[in-house]
User: Fold these one by one.
Assistant:
Number 1:
Amino acid sequence: MNKYITGVPLEKSYRLINHGPTILVSARHEGVENVMAAAWACGLDFSPPKLTVVIDKKAKTRELMEKSGLFVIQVPTVVQAPMTLQLGTETLAQQPDKLARAGVKLFEFEGFDLPFVEGCSAWLACRLIPEPHNQQTYDLYIGEIIGAWADSRVFKDGHWLFETAAPELRSLHYVAGGHFYAIGEEIIVGESQKS
Amino acid sequence: MNKYITGVPLEKSYRLINHGPTILVSARHEGVENVMAAAWACGLDFSPPKLTVVIDKKAKTRELMEKSGLFVIQVPTVVQAPMTLQLGTETLAQQPDKLARAGVKLFEFEGFDLPFVEGCSAWLACRLIPEPHNQQTYDLYIGEIIGAWADSRVFKDGHWLFETAAPELRSLHYVAGGHFYAIGEEIIVGESQKS
């Protein structure tokens, strides 16, 4: 595990996705692991922290989330853009070696039986809050964030450091057709306390 | 109305928020209008296009959305960062002149009885899909996109043009405490078709 990875207090964990990055969703059940890319993940509540994520019915990750009741939302970086696109395009059903093909390496945080993707900038371990109507009608999943970590080179003391960190650690923001944007310049309004 | 504003086909309207910008929500009912900022808005479906947005119980905009069954999600630009922060901080209940104080000017698109905010880069007119359980339990609202427009200087033919447009037209991505990022550099993976 990368020595820069540091725990993030749960009350500030929403900030890891508040700026709207494209994310990777991962889950595991009975030895089967998968990782997929998703653009539609979003904060839902501060305390306890919750988020939403939209997962298509054909995704194997969806089945693993439902069976295990757990999943990870993680924030890939600019250097992971090709991997992110591939994880959003291929399916485990059609490419059983999908993770190896995309170059995904997994690791674990102690106390969490979940697959975390190496090289990301932030990780949110989530407990699925079952909402069958949302899941069936809208493919919409709600998770409570139960663990949060970030690479302290790019997120520290509750704030992203994109303006000073290496550009390859910036987050990705997907549009369509292989077309992403990296996050850009910092804008401070008023006397930012950065609390 | 700004002469650069152009209609966006509904099937590509999700792309206006797919990169995770902080947005402004506006609504109107019986002559009362309000605009608020929200970081938690997200795509939900392609066809018919839908989105989610999280709106706190104390927001006047929430009441206007519920009563009219309509709302607008719009994408503010870098030059609107102070206005966006102010619209996310002040409430109509406490500051009846909130919109004037923030410098908001409203306009309309023909056929839509909704207040649109001038100077944004994109606008999504939405019809509320009532989901009382989500609204009460999670402050989560679902809208079907029924109209979409963008400033063609920064969004054209289904794609953002941040890499060539004026920097002040870039989208805002909020973290916390007055701390935003602008969207940044383009990243193309593979042979992007930009379809």
Number 2:
Amino acid sequence: MRFLAFFLTTPVAWPRQSSVYKWNEELRSQDRPSHSARMNRLCPPCSDLGSSCCSNLFECRLWSNSSRGVEGLLKEPMGMVEGQEAVERLERLTGMLRRRGVILPAFEIHGGAKGLYDFGPVGGRLRSKVQDVWRDHWLSQGDVVEVSCPTVTPFAVLEASGHVAEFSDFMTVCLSCNEASRADTMLEGHHPNPDALPMAELQTLLDDISPACPSCGASEWSPIVAENLMFDTVIGAGSSGRPAFLRPETAQGMFTTYPAIYRHFRERLPFGAMQLGRGYRNEISPRQGMIRLREFNMAELEYFIDPASDDAPDLGAWSETAIQFVPAEGDAFEGTIPKALADGIILHPTVAWFMARTYDLMMSLGVLAPKVRFRQHDRDEMAHYALDCWDVELHGSYGWVECVGIAHRGCYDLEAHEQATGQRLRAWRTYPEPKIVDIDGWTIDGAKAGPAFRALAGQVKDKVEALAADTVFPVSIVLEGGEEVTVESAHVKRVQRTESVAGEWFIPHVV
Amino acid sequence: MRFLAFFLTTPVAWPRQSSVYKWNEELRSQDRPSHSARMNRLCPPCSDLGSSCCSNLFECRLWSNSSRGVEGLLKEPMGMVEGQEAVERLERLTGMLRRRGVILPAFEIHGGAKGLYDFGPVGGRLRSKVQDVWRDHWLSQGDVVEVSCPTVTPFAVLEASGHVAEFSDFMTVCLSCNEASRADTMLEGHHPNPDALPMAELQTLLDDISPACPSCGASEWSPIVAENLMFDTVIGAGSSGRPAFLRPETAQGMFTTYPAIYRHFRERLPFGAMQLGRGYRNEISPRQGMIRLREFNMAELEYFIDPASDDAPDLGAWSETAIQFVPAEGDAFEGTIPKALADGIILHPTVAWFMARTYDLMMSLGVLAPKVRFRQHDRDEMAHYALDCWDVELHGSYGWVECVGIAHRGCYDLEAHEQATGQRLRAWRTYPEPKIVDIDGWTIDGAKAGPAFRALAGQVKDKVEALAADTVFPVSIVLEGGEEVTVESAHVKRVQRTESVAGEWFIPHVV
């Protein structure tokens, strides 16, 4: 499950009862005496900053006099704001966030850097508070721990996770001004979902449409290429340096530390591990303000479960909570999470559990219920690792925007790392009753097969033990290296016994 | 002021009254019932992990039976542990931290990566708790705000800050195995302070000594080069990509956001801004476990002051607190912070204030007083930006190790960014009384000088206004472009007036 911090900036009003709002109330009451005293101070000469441009979200005279201030937002009808009005509102919001030190373009004195933002003196504290709420919400579940891993990640880790191959966008470069653009973004409006098109179809569409370059207006484009979106760097110096990336998600840390987490929970599923930290995505052409960042605050929780377990979490507490759903198939509807699970729309009870708990988190952060919905990913839209995926979307000036992703990742990640490393990333499942297994087959007689096959004896043993009980010797066997050997009956012994097997190793599934 | 998180791992015992210890107590009492129940569980077959290898620092049977456990540490005499015993103790500590999920080598299933560590299921929580203590300690001061800036930093920012030129170590490469090493590290023991040697002297020493390569044992080395220690990357794709680094310190964020912070505090010094986050240092050959990391958790606070202000913080609360000092000149001594300031050993009252508050923080984190000392940097050891610098050192198995740095950075950083960007990064100082300034000189008479000098009139005006009151016209003036013009008395007017100046802009100093 993945949370992105930009929901801080979606203009969703905070109702009075929210905990974040309460914190602001508190801030306001602390700040009032000195603030009022300061409000009467004259501006220093030559400064273009009046005292009315203060940094307190709720105190400033300009702000509280504005019909579009926080009070205005609260009074606004629940209906969604669209079109030109949304654009203007967004500009006002961005300007306000910047003037008041909430969120501002990073490195602005040096000309700025697209896709990078600072949390200023007000935003920095707000960010910490939201992180605390998130951390406490999930730790209180009792079976979740917090880990913290490096952001610099060796090539091999992200090759195993599939990010080296899959984490890319289709890029094209303007032949006139050399500015790189995302091909699918420029073709929005010419196709219902250009994001999901394969490269060849996207190329055909680009050739047909020839969109204007957002930088210079020309319409000549280089052939589309898949551009990996990870920032790359090198660990170490000189020729001993190793290629590495900045992590595209924090989730991989929970998979690479899986052995320590499994040990921590005394090898008992289910359990979860979470991490708050930076994620990186070297966007080709970041636009849309805080929605497409090159470096962002994220918070992820991975919950490890036994896919064969029937344990279902108790969703009784949410049986009356009406929520908006947009399923992958069929129409949007309002319903409850337990009902959507029972109807087979939500595919797994653990996914339903985290949807319910996430909804509670959104409410405790002060998001308004009519501005939240759960949208299920279409099959061709899902990330390379997902079996089922729901986004929590919030409605703001950009329309409905993903804020949380709840994906059933199956055993994709642990299996991928296991295959790449040869390390066991599994859990032990004890059978209710030990299974009695009859073994009837063959093995080699070391005293005779050893001298006969010498260095190949080990390989011959594996092949012989795989033979059926009714094999008649001599048989001819082809080994891995291509050598053919003949196994005589003198080389082998019959094996007949029963074994009691207490359980088995399996790869946990992850939500 | 800069805090590094590795003090988490220095084996300094926590006394019972510390807040971190209290948290562990709490954890223990919560965990006891389920823990005890789990302790009786049999290990799964095939697993080499016994239930006695549990992750709770204080509960495990192995641990509590060990004479070297936490209780053992508490009972240990205050005397310092050195030599072979220290090495063994460190190995035990590292093994324990790893087994119990506190700190473990990162990406271990993929073969690991030197200089990168994970905070595991126990360490992750401990890290958050220490960060909370740090954050609350400084925010409670009332004139400090928290900001949060990107780690990916454009080239221009770190060029202005001096890191592109100065943030380097001297590297040499083994001609036999190609492994890079730090030249000064290999020459420790052959010079009292190889760290401070210029490149030529280090080269001479390397040639004389020919140390053995730590990897392969050979003794042939490439010529020494200065290797920049920042991880580099590129923002954006294609030919429009811009060179960037991962930040070597969080402090630059407080300087680049200075205008927003100054505005937040209504343009009134003093104030502080702090940031917790990752710092990066692409060490040539990281050794010493957690002491030399390539990616680390840091917490920095920059406090902006008026260098002309006489305001001195009240250090009365520390007048009885005896602390160990190692000054740059003279012998180590035990004394109080107010006394060291009065004696001119600590050079600035604000530095003394932050030393005192930092000492309190160390105590509240549970560090034992005899294992803390303040050491002043020698002049040739200080960072490129520092006027005075004190380290808080903690004594552990590596000896005395820097944990906090408190540097008087002067106006170095803001001035450097101001020069690089042309933006004003200053504060306004209002004079107690407005200053009356007599102006007696010349300016041009626009009606006559305009037609006479045409496009050059602006430049002529600047030159004329810089002339002394007793100038006799005509005079010959050389302009920027090299043109020589003759200014007649008809072109100019005498200016005589008094002006009242209310204050001035200055660059704040930073501690």
Number 3:
Amino acid sequence: MSLPEHVTIREVCLRDGLQIEAPIPLAAKLALLEAVVATGVREVEATAFVSPSKVPALADAEALAAELPRFRDTHGVEFSALVAGPGGANRAVAAGMDSIEYVVSASDAHSRANVGRSTAESTDLIADIARIAHDGGATIEVIVATAWDCPFDGPTDPARVVDIATAAVEIGADRIAIADTIGTTTPRRVTTLVELLRPVVGDLPFGAHFHNTRGAGLASAYAAVTAGIRRLDSSAGGLGGCPFAPGATGNIATEDLVYLLRDSGIGTDVDLQAAIRAADVARDVVGHDLPSALLRAGDRVLGRVRP
Amino acid sequence: MSLPEHVTIREVCLRDGLQIEAPIPLAAKLALLEAVVATGVREVEATAFVSPSKVPALADAEALAAELPRFRDTHGVEFSALVAGPGGANRAVAAGMDSIEYVVSASDAHSRANVGRSTAESTDLIADIARIAHDGGATIEVIVATAWDCPFDGPTDPARVVDIATAAVEIGADRIAIADTIGTTTPRRVTTLVELLRPVVGDLPFGAHFHNTRGAGLASAYAAVTAGIRRLDSSAGGLGGCPFAPGATGNIATEDLVYLLRDSGIGTDVDLQAAIRAADVARDVVGHDLPSALLRAGDRVLGRVRP
């Protein structure tokens, strides 16, 4: 097992975390963003440029983007935004995003449910999105959704993930990522897929996105790191979920991930105590409890109390 | 990475799960036990023979033990009980337990807080407990508690764990296990300790016990399995906790563990749907929510719904 010295965490609470919540005011998002950038994290998924009617919680994408330059300047944070097509990509670059995340679902049924296009049709659009991003001075990351399972089509044929990643690399994507969209994968399946994709992705930054819906999110994240992944998405407090899995827990919690990586000798840019404070803010702005373990238990503090 | 075809799960909800709960009636424990044995699990930690005043929830140990023969006969389940010294061991064999779990804390401060003896004094008692167990027709498992961290003494020197395991093997213990008593360990630390102990434990059955207090329980369990552990404790619904970590989540949940292992190609004796039903019963008998992920999200069911 070869573990890296460093893994890059991207904080996704402002997009994946909030997207199925009831809309919250821009001021609340900015309070959360303040807490997030105070953790030291260097990459933040700020919003999505998608249909405001489909995702009302992110309808303020342009307004939020207008607030980002001051955080970028003071904290050196890179801001990304998710898009579903060329229209969103144009909006994102116009709004000054540093990086565009373009999602391609590896399963046709999820792709059609999500964006009304087949996987092949979405793959064909990578070139357009990449051109829009690059012309606008942004980088493009292609995220393969339903990389392991689709709620409609069943387990995803890994060859479909390889095909999308291959197309993305050939077209000139700057980063590749794989996403466990519905929170079903487990460590061994992660290892298998990452090892299959590594030769395809080559030297490009290669990330993964896990949900803790069935408790295996952190185990999957660690398996991904042992298999060569060096970028992980996580969300303050574990905020977030999937519209297809009501009641399920959300993204892996940033503070839980940082704890696990730190005590495995793997550095991140994130300060653990600041991450717990950000999780606390996340809980406040959405007004309900969050699944984070560290938010309850805190860091391990040993030898300070006596029996 | 070499993964086994099978891992033995021991269900601990009746002991570790219930020990810090308010006492529940024997009939409720038997209802839970019915649900537990229906999962197919072959080993159940049924109770502890300890001071009723210190652990009132398990004060009915003899009464519960008297009910076990019918479950043993119909389901072929092996029942174990935890003991803290020779007195408890005598009670346990008199009550007909199949296996005695004797806990030795690797840290002096935890050992003294728990049983009023130093680690060395507790280690010296292994021979007595083993003789009582073997004379009574039971097997003995030595469990090293605070194997990674002690809330009072800080991180545990792995040499202390090795010393206890070495003594246990020399004295003739039938099984060795290591326990993350306060739920602080992480996968890499697990791998390191298991690899250090493997030559000591040799061919004896070697188990591990994790709590999910800081979210890393399943990741640690999977790391343990990849490092050679073939026995894992878990608790229906994730019932259980540690008196030293109030508000923290408890043992790793049996159903979450079974899901992770099954989808990693590792068999257990436990049926997942039956395990989810047992978790539901566990929630009912204690009357509060439990941290299990599968209890909320259920098994992955793919391809049955259409968008």
